[in-house]
Amino acid sequence: MSALKIGFYGHVRQYHNLKAEIDKAISDVLESGDKAISDVLESGSYVMGPQLGVFEKELAVYCKKKEAVGVNSGTDALWLALIAWGIGAGDEVITTSNTFFATAEAIWLAGATPVFVDINPETCNIDVNLIEAAITPRTRAIIPVHLYGQCAEMRAVAKIAKAHKLRVLEDNAQSLGARGNDFEIGELGDAVATSFIIQKNLGCFGDGGALVTDDPDLATNIRRLRNHGSLKRSFHSIGYNSRLDDIHAAVLRIKLRELDKWNDQRRALAKLYDEGLKGTSLKLPTALPGYRHIYHLYVVETPHRDALQQYLQERGITALTHYPIAIHQQEGYPWGHSARISGSLKHSERSAAQVLSLPMYPELTVEEAQATIDAIRAWDKSRK
Ligand SMILES: Cc1ncc(COP(=O)(O)O)c(C=O)c1O
């Protein structure tokens, strides 16, 4: 057995690289509690405190949007946007089935019906040529997922949405910092939902998310919904508890400053993988011309996925699967809820059976990426 150990995540290395700054920011939030209590905030500045407000402003600037609202998770950002738009029972929302479960879960939580269309097999993002066939009089919105770090083809999505008067909610949990060839994330949609769970390109130390938009009414509504329906102390309508804590906001402020550099490092590693794995039997990720793919995940495909994963694991290299079971293939689906499949989902099903994500994070060394390439090449040769 090899002594090599290449893990799948780099966030502990990331913490050590920024330790002094992060430790100070966290301790500053903890120390600031007294000051806030003697002011007006009953919960100190740990919840809905000043760091959250500043982070929201900085995130909005980064996303070139007017408003960013911090919430408890990417799932909540999706779900609360649907609720704020009044999308619920009897309504349909079009999306894909080869995404993280939460994309569809948010639609179910809102009480609406997800309608799954197939993916473009090259990008694993929604096949924009299949969207129109899925539209019915009940359709209210489209949720394109910017999967693995690459934008969906938003020009086409936006054109269809405009023609049919549909909302577009971009699921950007995996692609903060990516761009299209001639558009930015959020430029063509009505709102963007982002996740800050630790393993994302911009991750806090736990769960977190945000809703980013140019629509001030939507932003205000999300601010209300995330805080028990309250915009002013003691005045409530029904909402939820979905706030982004100040400790997370303080950490995210530090990490946001590093995000573009980290994404460039991911892109450099992806180039190394692309070149090193060229000529093997694996299908490598496709970056669309002119798109800035930021490789949240570097996903290869092979019909012998399980064998390759095991081969790598035996050599100390952890590769994971995103996502090995398409949502419509989950046991018990759709659990008594309504759901609809539009056309065939053959590419989504193939993807679930064949995808394997290689180690990919800014802190991965060139030597580690090269060792992964060498191991895959040796496996590939042994099969010929
Ligand atoms: C594509 C996608 N959508 C939604 C989510 C949900 O985000 P969260 O885990 O922050 O709720 C995630 C990630 O976890 C995701 O990858």
Describe this structure in words.
- The chain is α/β, with parallel strands linked by helices.
- The chain folds into 2 domains: 16-256, 3-Layer(aba) Sandwich (Aspartate Aminotransferase, domain 2); 259-383, Aspartate Aminotransferase, domain 1 (Alpha-Beta Complex), CATH 3.90.1150.10.
- It contains 14 helices and 10 strands.
- The chain has helices spanning 11-17, 19-31, 33-38, 50-62, 74-84, 102-110, 131-134, 154-164, 216-225, 246-256, 259-277, 305-314, 346-354, 366-383; strands at residues 67-71, 92-96, 113-117, 139-142, 167-171, 191-195, 209-213, 298-301, 340-341, 355-358.
- The strands form 2 sheets. An 8-stranded mixed beta sheet has the order 1-7-6-5-4-2-3-9, with helices on both faces. Strands 8-10 form a two-stranded antiparallel ribbon.
- Helix 8 links the parallel strand 4 (139-142) and strand 5.
- Helix 4 (50-62) packs parallel to helix 10 (246-256), helix 5 (74-84) packs parallel to helix 6 and helix 11 (259-277) runs parallel beside helix 14 (366-383).
- The two termini are 23 Å apart.
- 47% of the residues are buried.
- Residues 36-43 have low confidence and may be disordered.
- The protein binds pyridoxal-5'-phosphate.
- Pyridoxal-5'-phosphate binds at residues 73-75, 99-100, 102-103, 145, 171, 173-174, 195, 197, 207, 209.
